[in-house]
Records
---
Amino acid sequence: MAEATARIPATAVAAGGIVGGYAIARWTKKRPLGGAALAAAGAVAAYEWHRTGGTKAAAGLSAAYLAAFAGAHPLARKVGAWPAVFTVAGGVAAASWAVTRRAGA
């Protein structure tokens, strides 16, 4: 009997990676640990983006993921850390959904 495996959408993995990476870095006070979580989630999301949308989608969304991480820092100076993290995570999730929604259908 074949075992069914549940897939977590790349949209959720990417948004969770940004939020979780920040949370881990903040609460453990170990930025490299948060960076490792961010990178691991990014790698999983990139794999799924490639699987569902192809190379161009994976490359573009991976670039957006990295840009969101980088963009959260200056945004945090204006709106605060958590609002910035949630804003960029939402942006990456929206971009991921928009790019891959037809491929997954």
Note: The two ends are 26 Å apart (CA to CA).
---
Amino acid sequence: MSSMLQDSQLTDEAEVVWLEDPESLDYVRQALDKVPTRRGKPRYSRDGRLVGYTNLQPGAASDPDSGLFPRRAFFLLPHDRDKQPHGPYSVGAPGEAVDPRTIQPGRVGAKTPRSQRSQAAEIAPVGP
């Protein structure tokens, strides 16, 4: 699914579960995946590693066509800044990357100076 998420797509989220400490990461990539369950660690089939995911509220509805539930996955790829600080994202960040400190259930998250590291980009303010 698209990496440019809207809060309106996340209304059934109950919690964010981190598999790694988000304070140690400048950014995480986020994607909305369709999975067979509302809760628990989803399967991960991308390169790199899963660093977090969302659980949905008990009454969250599945997609009427597929029976799957849209849930966010937070991940990093092998060439991301945490493993290659002088690599392609030593400055800037991927389009789907947000500062993990700004992620909350039902909220997409924001690009910040920390996540963008000096890139001249539109950066949303952090706050409620």
Note: The beta strands are 13-18, 28-35, 49-56, 69-76, 97-98.
